[in-house]
Specification:
Number of domains: 1
InterPro entries: ATP10
Keywords: Coiled coil
Pfam family, one: ATP-synt_10
Strand order of the largest sheet: 2-1-5-4-3-6-7
Oligomer: single chain
Largest sheet: 7 strands, mixed
Shape: globular
Number of helices: 11
Order of helices and strands: HHHHEEHEHHEHHEHEEH
Strand content: 5-15%
Distance between the termini: 147 Å
Protein name: Mitochondrial ATPase complex subunit ATP10
Length: about 325
């Protein structure tokens, strides 16, 4: 029997047998390759037709409005504890700092903030201009509403130290939180109709807080406060505050999730947030702010009239008894 090794050749009869046996297999492979190629071509053509049809359908369909994807504000904004101007003693502040619930809340906040990039707020303005919720169409009920936390700053009028707790108590206030030129435009889109209408009412005021939590930016704003006075109307300077207060743990309760966006709050005479708006206002939101402000002013005027009438009756009764 012949052996096959390196340098040896196969017999002719054996080679012919192997070649004839491999021909059906070769035909099968070629047939399978051809069918696969045809299938790929047909699949590629189908995908091209589908993509063209989809693109033409999208181009012909009207663009969906951005605000359709935004939810309504579904919770009261603010803090549960009534604000005060009293400074807590050191012992009480240490006790609050060591509170277990406060520590857990601080930990959750730090974990949440750690996942955000440096340009997170700026990048979020690309979608809906940074607007994340739609203002409510009605007032938040008084028994469900929360308090505006105390925010302090220096007045643009004379540099005097002021705070929102003292300024807003007993009045109906539209309070705007600004910090950038974009946020100023956002606030104007809300207040262009409401402020001119109620500016002459003694029970109304428009409070603007230029919030600069960054120390360097805060110093720059204070340095250029003189030029800022030339931009802000004279009648609004006493209620225009420049603040560098740390709002890190108050942003979520106030719904202020983006530092580049402007926020507007409607505050009643008891320092409660009864309405809020964010970002660029829609026509319905601007009208809602105007109508809700009118409702609160009317209620406060009626309350003042009742108090005045009751006071006059008490004085008349006291004079009659005397």
């Amino acid at each position: 029997m012949a052996e096959f090794g390196i340098g040896t050749s196969r017999p002719a009869s054996t080679m012919s047998v192997l070649y004839s046996a491999s021909r059906p297999l070769r035909r099968t492979v070629l047939t399978n390759q051809g069918s696969r190629l045809c299938f790929r071509k047909s699949l590629h053509a189908s995908s091209i037709i589908y993509n063209e049809a989809k693109s033409s359908e999208e181009s012909n369909s009207p663009p969906a409005p951005e605000n359709d994807t935004l939810p309504l504000l579904n919770r009261p904004l603010g803090v549960r504890k009534r604000p005060t101007t009293d400074i807590k003693p050191t012992v009480e502040r240490i006790k609050d700092f060591m509170n277990h619930d406060a520590l857990m809340a601080q930990r959750r906040h730090l974990i949440k903030e750690a996942g955000k990039g440096y340009f997170h707020d700026l990048n979020m303005t690309r979608k809906n201009g940074g607007k994340t919720w739609i203002a409510p169409k009605v007032l938040i009920r008084e028994d469900k509403s929360l308090y505006l936390p105390n925010i302090s700053g220096t007045s643009l009028e004379d540099g005097e130290k002021k705070d929102t707790t003292t300024m807003c108590f007993g009045k109906i206030s539209i309070l705007a939180m600004i910090g950038t030129q974009i946020s100023e435009a956002h606030v104007k889109s809300f207040t262009y109709a409401a402020h001119p209408r109620f500016s002459s009412n003694p029970l109304y005021q428009f409070v603007q807080i230029n919030l600069q939590e960054n120390l360097l930016k805060s110093l720059l704003v204070k340095v250029y406060s003189r030029s800022l006075r030339g931009v802000v109307p004279r009648e609004l300077r006493p209620t225009y505050l420049i603040s560098n207060q740390n709002m890190e743990y108050l942003r979520d309760p106030l719904g202020m999730t983006n530092s580049k966006v402007g926020y507007v709050f409607l505050i009643d005479e008891n320092l409660k947030i009864r309405w809020a708006g964010s970002g660029d206002a829609t026509l319905e939101e601007a009208q809602s702010l105007e109508s809700r402000t009118a409702v609160l002013l009317k209620r406060l005027e009626e309350k003042k009239e009742k108090e005045k009438l009751a006071r006059s009756e008490e004085e008349a009764t006291g004079a009659a008894q005397a």
